[in-house]
Design a protein that fits this description.
Methylamine Dehydrogenase, Chain H; about 140 residues; four-stranded antiparallel β-sheet; mainly beta
Length: about 140
């Protein structure tokens, strides 16, 4: 990934991606720019006047040998969901001590889209055309 700060035309090269970044979201209060394209969700910090310049990203949702293909922010939380090329979906936080959780196991079809609605519905779309929708948290508002 590559970015430019318009104010002074500073150049930000965000490297380390083995595949194309196909999805990105703003997440958390820091804020972070969370991206797909690696074996985990890569979260670049944009707090402070220099943003990610000269800093390493935080990571979460490690997918092993699988490439992250989609990301979605969890509203009101410093957390995200990451979908992978094998169809798995993991939940995690951009923190060194946070654990990742399996939301959906591998299906063999890459995750093409992830979305979370404001009333906590998760939608997962696979390249094969299969769709999963589920209410997160299980409770009524």
């Amino acid at each position: 990934m590559h970015g430019w700060r318009l104010r002074d035309k500073a150049d930000m090269r965000m490297s380390g991606y083995p595949a194309k970044v196909k999805d990105f979201i703003w997440m958390g209060s820091a804020p972070f720019l969370a991206t797909s394209g690696a074996d985990e969700a890569v979260c670049w910090p944009f707090d402070g006047k220099d943003g990610p310049m000269g800093r390493s990203p935080a990571t979460c949702c490690y997918g092993g040998k699988q490439v992250c293909t989609a990301v979605a922010g969890m509203l009101g939380h410093d957390a995200l969901l990451a979908g992978f090329a094998d169809g798995a979906v993991l939940a995690g936080r951009a923190s060194e001590d946070a654990e990742d959780f399996v939301v959906k196991g591998s299906s063999g079809s890459p995750i093409a889209a992830l979305a979370i609605t404001s009333d906590a519905w998760l939608f997962v779309g696979e390249e094969s055309g299969r769709i999963l929708w589920v209410r997160l948290g299980g409770g009524e508002k």
